[in-house]
Fold VIT family protein.
Amino acid sequence: MFEHYSKNVLAGYLRAFVFGVEDSVASTVGLLSGIAIAGVARETILLTGAILILVEAFSMAMGDFLSEYSSESYMRQAEVSSHRSFIAAFIMFFSYLLAGLIPLFPYLILTPELAAWLSIGLSLLALFFLGVIGAKISNINALKSGLRMFLIGGAAIFVGVIVGAFLGNK
């Protein structure tokens, strides 16, 4: 399927996918659980989550497009086609958008208090599996990669929870 792409190009697409999923899951669950713990109404949590996911998916895609284009232009020392940059941006947009639904979904069906815990759990599980999938594609240790993604993404989630708890008690 991807035989006509170089390993460097595919690595760039994998980077966009992993970056989009990890950033979406970690930042979305961090924000949502933080504001849920702060005592914000369920409707506000859902609205905030939807706005965050859409705005950030677009912003991350544009940032990925510009950084990929700039990097490729630098490497070639010339103007380049924007085709690869567009594909990477597309991957970034949809990976961010779809992954953001993982932490948002529990708030559709549960109270904010219960949803926050399920959202955190599902997000940590998604991060672990993202690490495993990336490792399988890259032929590296899947458990180690899954745990790395779980711990690093979990740290970002933890920050959101702590900030929400701290600011919500003011």
